[in-house]
Write a structure and sequence with these properties.
single chain; four-stranded antiparallel sheet; three-stranded antiparallel sheet; globular
């Protein structure tokens, strides 16, 4: 089961994604500003329209995004 949660902090959003063992996922993040990988080994693999796409293997991955993604 893939799990995710969002938290909003002043000028930023934090996305936490948990990927099960022996699984990979593509995570699409709105490209307002540059999302930063805070934890995990997710790799930026491409841009798809207004989204930055990351590939992530099993484990916990934490991203920080500019709050402009809510606009």
């Amino acid at each position: 089961l893939i799990r995710s949660s969002w938290e909003r902090h002043r000028n930023a959003l934090t996305l936490t994604v948990q990927i099960p063992v022996n699984t990979t996922a593509h995570i699409y993040l709105k490209s307002a500003g540059v999302p930063r990988v805070q934890q995990g080994t997710a790799v930026n693999i491409k841009t798809d329209g207004d989204y930055t796409v990351y590939q992530a293997g099993s484990g916990v991955h934490v991203f920080e995004l500019n709050s402009d993604v809510l606009s």
